[in-house]
Design a protein that fits this description.
Structural class: alpha/beta
Order of helices and strands: HHEHEHEEHEHEEEEHEHE
Number of strands: 11
Largest sheet: 7 strands, mixed
Radius of gyration: 17 Å
Strand content: 25-35%
Strand order of the largest sheet: 3-2-1-4-5-11-10
């Protein structure tokens, strides 16, 4: 199934995104999120995973390097083409989170790595992720923190910058652009995500707002001023 992704900008931005993300990922992935995400996987004995919104396949390749059989899905054709080019042995499918083409209880690990913010029908998508998860399996989420998506950096009269949050409780889409990329993200309060996840019957077993760890002190300081990201692991109870 081919899905038109022009509505959210990802297909039009695919070339710029691939150039920006490279093989290793951007600062947030490399120096904030990868370490806590991988820490939840090592020693957990996951065998098969679904990466929802896999993009160009970077995290799928990381999962495979841990010996986890991985399927990646994404609706952007150019991103899927790059994923297949970089990982010819991988499994990458054209699909969306709201209608996952898998049977119930198909995976012991489902990953959403910075993709919840891209999904319009978040309630249906979360329901689908829980549906395809096996009992005792985990839904591992990295997401932009809701304080982040509700605000923006603003210059003060003395020339310094502060982060201003407004309309936090209002669900809303917004276009964000940088270095040739222009995509539509969603702001939703954290409570909205939590209510939807709890409503599926999943149980929260881990939550953290990871700090940046890099040799770039200036970027570390900037990413420490605002809670940019969070990582959550939700487990499906045994039947």
């Amino acid at each position: 199934m081919t899905i038109d992704t022009a509505y959210n900008g990802w297909e039009a931005s695919a070339g710029a995104w691939i150039a920006e993300i490279g093989e290793a990922g951007d600062f947030g992935r490399q120096h904030v999120l990868d370490t806590p995400m991988l820490a939840r996987l090592r020693g957990a004995h996951f065998t098969n995973a679904l990466d929802v919104g896999c993009g160009e396949g970077r995290f799928c390749r990381m999962l495979a390097s841990l010996g986890i059989e991985t399927t990646g899905i994404d609706p952007a054709p150019s991103l899927l083409a790059m994923a297949r080019q970089r990982d010819p042995a991988g499994r990458y499918l054209d699909a969306v989170a709201e209608t996952l083409p898998f049977e119930n209880d198909s995976f012991d690990l489902v990953v959403s790595y910075l993709t919840l913010i891209d999904i319009d029908d978040i309630e249906q998508a979360i329901t689908e992720m829980a549906r395809v998860l096996k009992p005792n399996g985990s839904l591992l989420i990295a997401n932009l923190n809701s304080y982040n998506t509700a605000g923006t950096w603003t210059k003060t009269t003395d020339g310094s910058s502060i982060f201003v949050i407004d309309n936090y409780l209002e669900d809303r889409p917004a276009w964000v652009s940088w270095r040739g990329i222009s995509v539509r993200n969603w702001h939703r309060p954290l409570g909205r995500y939590m209510q939807l996840l709890l409503g599926t019957g999943l149980q929260l077993v881990h939550f953290e707002e990871p700090a940046p760890v890099s040799e770039d002190a200036e970027k570390n300081a900037r990413y420490s001023r605002v809670p940019y990201f969070h990582v959550m692991e939700w487990r499906k109870p045994a039947a």
